[in-house]
Design goal:
By secondary structure, this protein is of the alpha+beta class. The protein has two domains: about 230 residues, Orthogonal Bundle (MetI-like fold); about 130 residues, no CATH class. About 50% of the residues lie in helices and about 10% in strands. It has 13 helices and nine strands. The strands form two sheets. It has a five-stranded antiparallel β-sheet, with no helix packed on it. Strands 1-4-5-8 form a four-stranded mixed β-sheet, with no helix packed on it. Strand 2 and strand 3 form a beta hairpin. Helix 1 runs antiparallel to helix 13 and helix 3 packs parallel to helix 7. The longest helix is centred in the N-terminal third of the chain and has 43 residues.
Length: about 450
């Protein structure tokens, strides 16, 4: 048997070559390690140490900052909102991305559609926050969402006729507790009751309004006119219909008896109304409060109740394209023979989607979901920009609360560091899970 041995003289050069290769590798890796240490490792270690000191950083307080963190109502709100973000945003994004990725395959212009949905990813969070802050404005003249909501509402419900109208103080009309106006006394059938109003700007009087007029009432009816008791240019008699005064069309007028409405009419173009076939008795002529209700202003998107869902909506607009593209890449790699075999066996498209497509895409969906969980745990820009100052605390999450406590007026960097450590501890498990998934997929 022959034994192979390494010549003694060759061992030295080989070890020197190995050391040289190691030195070259370290030289290439060292800048990255230095940057990693300076930008990641050192700040993490410093924050962990700083979290055990007071606000000034001069007195060691142990775990007091961590205890205070869970006693502070603002921090508890941030933890609650962060939990909402982690549960809602990644779930919706993964679901939307999956649905869109499947549907895009059946669209003729799939590439253009993907590009359109992915374009918001090119917009910075700052710009996206400004866009949605304007879109969520409560004033319908500024906020596009409320403009649409008000338009739909007024199309089906109708706006109040004259929100600024009111009677003169000395014209015998009395305001009810619900905001309606009615005659101070009762009147029998056969009377004419004219109701003069003021406070309506001439520009808000409908173009179809005609000069106010009314006919004499018959024996079993009440007639009258609701008119703008204002003569352009001055003059005229308060409480009486003058030639230059116009009627107010579209107003609802009620005849009430013993507190109960018995007849309803709507004013014509000249402001006239008529109640016919009234029984004998006394009636109160009334203008319901709905005629004077403030116009519908839409939804308070950035109020305390809706500010978090509104910001999540902005986040979905940005990241839906990202989820769709990643899931679409996984969908394109699925074995088509399995899908076609299922269709040939009589499976419907829904059965193919639920029983074959989704199970085969499970690894991709998991990676997308976990990646989005990591991302939403760090969300800061959108919340800080979109949420107005009065509701900032209602929308706060751990990242914004950490900044507010440390630099936004709290000036307690000990507590802020504790919040940063908590955020790190929550993010690390998801990062480790993602890294292991990538390693298993490559092995």
């Amino acid at each position: 048997m022959t034994t192979l041995t390494t010549p003694v003289g060759a061992a030295g050069p080989r070890r020197r070559a190995q050391r040289r290769r190691r030195a070259i590798a370290v030289a290439f890796v060292l800048p990255a390690l230095l940057l990693l240490g300076a930008l990641v490792v050192y700040p993490v270690l410093f924050s962990v140490g700083r979290s055990f000191f007071d606000a000034a950083g001069t007195r060691f307080v142990g775990g007091e900052n961590y205890a205070e963190m869970f006693r502070d109502p603002a921090t508890l709100t941030a933890i609650r909102n962060s939990a909402i973000w982690v549960v809602v945003a990644p779930t919706l994004l993964t679901g939307l991305g999956l649905i869109l990725a499947v549907l895009v395959e059946k669209v003729r212009w799939a590439t253009a559609f993907k590009l359109l949905l992915f374009m918001p990813m090119a917009v910075s969070f700052l710009a996206a926050g400004i866009i949605f802050r304007l879109a969520y404005e409560e004033d319908p003249d500024k906020g596009v969402l409320n403009a649409a909501v008000v338009g739909v509402h007024d199309a089906f419900t109708g706006a109040s006729s004259y929100p600024s109208a009111r009677p003169r103080d000395d014209q015998g009309l009395r305001e009810g507790p619900d905001g309606s106006y009615g005659t101070a006394g009762t009147v029998p059938p056969g009377r004419t009751v004219n109701l003069g109003l003021v406070g309506v700007p001439p520009g808000e009087v409908p173009a179809r309004a005609e000069p106010a007029s009314t006919a004499k009432a018959g024996p079993h009816e009440l007639r009258g006119a609701v008119y703008l008791d204002f003569t352009p240019g001055g003059g005229g008699r308060p409480g009486a219909i003058d030639a230059a005064e116009r009627g107010l069309p579209g107003l609802t007028v009620e005849a009430a008896r013993d507190g109960r409405t018995v007849a309803t009419a709507t004013t014509a173009a000249d402001g006239s109304y008529r109640f016919a076939d009234l029984a004998d008795g006394s009636y109160t002529v009334r203008l319901p409060a709905a005629n004077f209700a403030p116009p519908y202003q839409g939804v308070s998107w950035l109020g305390p109740a809706l500010v978090t869902p509104a910001i999540i909506g902005a986040y979905l607009w940005i990241w839906t394209g990202f989820a769709m593209v990643l899931i679409g890449a996984g969908l394109s790699s699925l074995p088509r023979d399995a899908l076609e075999a299922a269709r040939m066996d009589g499976a419907s498209e829904w059965q193919v989607f639920r029983r074959i497509t989704v199970p085969l895409l499970a690894p991709v969906l998991t990676v997308v979901f976990v990646t989005l969980v990591i991302n939403v745990m760090k969300v800061f820009d959108l919340i800080y920009i979109i949420a107005p100052g009065p509701v900032q605390q209602d929308a706060t999450v751990l990242a914004t609360q950490m900044w507010l406590v440390s630099f936004g007026g709290g000036n307690d960097q000990g507590l802020g560091s504790a919040l940063g450590v908590l955020l790190l501890l929550l993010v690390v498990p998801a990062m480790v899970f993602n890294v292991r998934r990538f390693r298993r997929s490559q092995s």
